[in-house]
Amino acid sequence: MATKNQESTGLLKLLEDQVADIYYAEKQLLKALPKMAKAASNDELRTAFTDHAEETKGQLERLEQVFEALGKPAKGKKCPAIDGILEEGNEIMDEFADDAALDAGLVAAGQKAEHYEIASYGSMCAWAEQLGLDEVAALLNETLEEEKGADEKLTEIAESVVNIEAEEGDEEDEEELVDAGGGSSRNSKANASNNKSTTKAPAKGASAKNGKR
Ligand SMILES: [Fe+2]
Ligand SMILES: [Fe+2]
User: Which of 46, 96, 121, 193 is 20 to 30 A from 6, alpha carbon to alpha carbon?
Assistant: First the structure.
């Protein structure tokens, strides 16, 4: 509970502020995840986004319980960070709409959102514990674990299929280019986005280690 101590009051205020921030963020994610699922061509990735959208509904309900425990109305506060992350995700969906690397880009966009959530829930959880708000801490921790699970799932999909398919797509494009004896803006864009050399292919593992430390 909040004490009369100035610092504890500040921390409680901060917690309330950040709960409102993440409430807004979760609502935006609930709208974005089905769009990302629709854009994904890999079945596993589409399912991961769809499943996480369902999980997000539960996370919003949990946040409503947090607001209640804090004695505050459930009200979001505009979060420019998530808006920016999702805007970048939209850019990826536009720019890579017909590209074999689209799914890899979607995974990255999803993971950027997950990492924001993990940082936010992790901090809020620690503050709630510090404040002795056990119920709030437990609710936030439950969501934190789901966010970590979603992030790990995306890493697994990226490393087992999506990154490999993106690279194979590149190779096919290169073959087409050789056959056609020319280039297209689509291919030059795809290659520019891929920091791998087209001549020597170290194949797997050359790309980002999706979310791994
Ligand atoms: Fe979430
Ligand atoms: Fe999430």
Answer: 121
